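A reminder before we start the practical. When you read a complex entry, don't treat the lines as separate problems. The point of joint prediction is that each chain is placed relative to the others, so the output describes one connected object in space. Small molecules and nucleic acid strands, if listed, are placed in the same frame. In the example below there are two entries. Take a minute to note the order of the lines before looking further.
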Amino acid sequence: MIVKTKGVYVMSFASAVGTKEGEGPLKNRFDYIDKDDRFGMNTWEKAESESARLALSLALSKAPMAPSEVDLLLAGDLENQCVASCYGLLSFEIPYLGIYGACSNLTEGMAIASMLISGGAARRAAVVTSSHNCAAERQYRNPIEYGGQRPPTAQWTVTGAGGYILGERGKVKIVDCLVGVVQDKGQKDISNMGAAMAPAAADTLLRYFKESGTSAKDYDLIITGDLGIHGSELFKDLCKQSGYPVGNHADCGMLMYGENQDAHMGGSGCGCIATVFGAHFLPHMECGKLTNVLLMATGALMSKDSITQGQNIPAVAHLVHLMYGENETGSRPCGSAERRNHE
Amino acid sequence: MIVKTKGVYVMSFASAVGTKEGEGPLKNRFDYIDKDDRFGMNTWEKAESESARLALSLALSKAPMAPSEVDLLLAGDLENQCVASCYGLLSFEIPYLGIYGACSNLTEGMAIASMLISGGAARRAAVVTSSHNCAAERQYRNPIEYGGQRPPTAQWTVTGAGGYILGERGKVKIVDCLVGVVQDKGQKDISNMGAAMAPAAADTLLRYFKESGTSAKDYDLIITGDLGIHGSELFKDLCKQSGYPVGNHADCGMLMYGENQDAHMGGSGCGCIATVFGAHFLPHMECGKLTNVLLMATGALMSKDSITQGQNIPAVAHLVHLMYGENETGSRPCGSAERRNHE
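Here is the predicted structure of the whole assembly.
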């Protein structure tokens, strides 16, 4: 069921990304670009931890806010046992709730945080999620040093972390959210995450439309995490077939890299939507150019072992509904929100 | 901060355990004991998924309740990318929030679920967590087929799953909870989880005592998840050194196996507290023999990779405060709660 939330705003955001991401079309939007993807560390896994630490540290300093002013930290990543988040965020000493929804972590965290803040269990909560190309590739597929050939349907796991602080004030509010139901449509190809995740995105969006009595035209934009080119086509086909065509769609995975960056179907990984939404779309929302957005991160819930054992790749998508608006005025009909330039 | 919750009760519980657990001192308390730890499956990982499915299925049938009457499912386990939960619980089609706190999953899930129900974001939520000895050992240490020697400080990962349904009625209520802060005290021994987790349990409990102005004597019992014999001693030492001695302590890991079962320091794994608390302590609470309990699951947040890379083993403990009482009467002073026999 859709859960309405009150008094929850995006207070602050920051991103820390790798070299390839810093050479892409969004290069001027990120807060920190690392020169060699190592973030000063001697393993890829520690590098990812450091990117997560940097993202939250920068988000706190932009607020500005001390870690002690944040009641809860929700974080997760793709590494086995989510160690990137755990080690990277240890130093903040904020009460810690580990989450795991693969690349759906961002909106899983935002949804839980929003519901907890709205219900009075926390005043402010931080949501941090990350991925690292070299850590993810060697864990899920092969070490990049092998130079394995990537099939055309493959995506490029983003090196990057995004840190969000949700709380009592801001220019963008979270008005409701919908938790996803895990979908398994029989997809087994570890190099085609888009096909695994598209049915989950469609399922969550269609449930949302049906329960809210709305459709795509009621929103400025419907943003997905990392379906990529192929997954986005499937997603739109599934929505159209169900009588809910989606024309106003953007996928963070398709925006991260340029055509000449050899990313095939686009970016993927928890760090993709975490950095692209915050760095690219959030500023547009904060200045009122975008006023009414549905944000869905999608996650493929397999492990290397489950694939080896012949299991399918189930997926899940969680939806968060964001609106432009500094004050709490309840739900506004789409299009009536005032638009203005960034102050 | 301690979050007070209202109107949250344990509605139903069920457990599914393995053979060794079914031969231990609690053998008559479990709902399902598997004959060979395989749960009818052809891999240990699929067996764990099936144990999770069984636990939730039995909890639903004991309620009785249909899956569609549960708004949210919070689940996690120790397998890479938490696949035991994801695959095992797919068939219920309940909106799914994956959590990861290692062996702290049970109280992490209970705390989030309680806060969400109390805040109005859900009417009912299920919390399911599991572990499997053979799946965990080959992932974290060595395949059991190697017959590796286990050091004296080792614990025995429990094969078992517990499913809890929280909601609007029951005989045991969750009155407040405290989310843990990750602790890293420099422990590096993968075969001494008790030493890694004891400081986290002590930290959470001491924060709880200080904020609530209570001490151990205000509660019937303080229950930890799987500190084991060694970890429990460390935990009690740490509490005593801080001026908050804990005499009334029980550890689920120390209760699961008999002395002749070669479990060394005791049971461990998410399935330990999930099955022992529900099968052993919860019935005592439901009949009023235990009226006021602090429950803390503790989790060690490392991965095999992080250990190989020389990292410490951080840990976290989340606390849930449970009281006997069918009706919502607000907080009661300790000792004043009426006790009565099971109906």
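Discuss with your neighbour: Chain B is about 30% helix and 20% strand. What might explain this?
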